[in-house]
Amino acid sequence: MFNLIVSGNGNAWEKPPYSMDRSRFGEYSGEDAQGISLKESASLQALIGIPTILMYELGAHGDNVRLVRYGRLTRIELAGKNLQFNFTPDNERAYIPRARIQEFAESLGMDQFEDYRTHWAVKDGDIPTEVIEHGQPEPPQRDIKLVSSELSEAIATKNDTRAAALKQEISSFPPSLDKAVEYLRENFNSSQSFEALKHLGASQEDCRTLVESVIEQNRFAEIKNNRPFSLVWLLENYGAPTEERFLDDAVAACEEVLRGILAKHSALESFTEDELRPLWQCISCHTLKLRLRRVINGLLARFASCQSAEGYWHLEDQPDLRITSMMVVVLQRLGNDSHRTAIRSAVLWLCNNSPYKNADLFESRDLVAMVLALEAVRRSGMLVDLEHVTAAGDRSVHELQRPLGYWQAEKWEKADTTVLVMDYFSRSGSMLEQVDGFLLMSRDFFRKAEELAYEGGVNNRRLSAIAAVHAMEMFLYGLFERREDLGISAFGNRGQQTLGPRESLATLQRRLQEEKILVDNRELSYRDQLSTLVGHRDMVIHRASEISFAELDRGMKAVEGFIRKYGADLMKIELLQ
User: Fold this and answer.
1) Residue 96, SS3?
2) Stretch (H or E) spanning 21
3) Which of 28, 242, 286, 345 minimizes the number of CB atoms within 10 Å of its CB?
4) Residue 410: count of CB within 10 angstroms of its CB
5) Nearest to 419 by CA among 234, 208, 547, 215
6) Is the peptide bond before 17 cis (omega within 30 degrees of 0)?
7) How confident is the model at residue 495, as a pLDDT?
8) DSSP 339
9) Is residue 321 within 8 Å of residue 354, measured between CB atoms?
10) Alpha-carbon distance 430 to 577, whole Å?
11) Residue 393 · residue 159 · CB < 8 Å
């Protein structure tokens, strides 16, 4: 048996002496407690030395109301209307996370109302090892995660006084991404900013539960009307094949938005942020980039044509920092090599006509423009010469975090702005520069391969296989160029021609084995599937053979997996982002 002692006084377990109203003794107890009586004080001695949990009621007020203490009683005495006792914490597991108590409440024999009742229960059996195995000898440090968890509980129990105190404590923490994560976690349900899931460490099971709740609780139509692009992102990443029709409906809603903007601007000289932002949102959704490529390309062409000779885009005849920043990133992420000159001139304008050079000069701090401009610089290929810009800008973005952990910008929801900032910082080290010939060709070949495969048909599958092999081949050449330490040249035969995909794969594998990057003489990941795809490509070119949908699909997945894995492992870039 074990003691479970709960108090509604938020300071009861902070220092001895400890006591409990004798009228509350025995409540919610098991059969083992029947032999213990307050009328026979000697029987109370049976409780000395047995495992004991001290905890507070949910809704109690105090600095440490979420701390659960584990140890043993060393003395029990009757003192008037109270029971007084001494408690010795366990040497190794004195403090248990409250969440463990709630998770294993049934195994502990707890009633649903015990969390809200001051009482002393004597429970049958033993405390499950799962409850105490995460205990620690000292109280957990009051970090942002712990305080945010307490805030969630205070809000859930409508403890306004406690919630206000915890918000003040959160405000005292310095700016950090951890602080932002906890803000997003706390406000996720109300924000409908599904992209926040990237930063919350949510399990696949939790994300599936969210998808099902969106579909089953009649929320789908509302979200499709209000936030179709976020809805596509959610269904693309966590939807099931049986929910394909919901994804199709959400994609159709996004297409309607984009076509409405395109129809409005048959000829234009400028556009608004509200008209540009849907195009920018397509960046995060592979499904939209693939299925809506034609309308996306139409908008790209229209908007790109509005660039001024100086490099900026304007609104109401005035250069607009936010629109220019967003448009550059749109061209970098959705455009192609033909936009290189436009991108370069816009980045130079941003750096020459913005205060990023010196953080002290900030007056109107447009956070969205800042973050997008910093991303544009990092992708521009001029980062080495503009590190003073990104360094000052990064510091300024951190400084603009609000005390409760979010970032705020005009016309943007707090959660969306916070996700924007966190996306930037999480990807800042892996952004693809827009001047790398081989790698940019690899990205564009793979895009074309996907488009052709999606459109379907025998000839499109043939062309898709050819493009996919070129994507893999250009990636290898770009890798050789960037990783000079591997000592591999993309060119053989005295520099007269490139190695070709098969020889490139073999050469890379051999060098990685020699460098012990591939241990135990293992092969490159996906090599067999890639070789098979190259074989299909050769048969298409030399014999006009067909390639089946299944064969192409396997080859495409291998190319994508290979580029993602070795782009990250060997170059620290995300080529297909």
Assistant:
1) strand
2) strand 18-21
3) 242
4) 11
5) 234
6) yes
7) 60
8) G
9) yes
10) 9
11) no
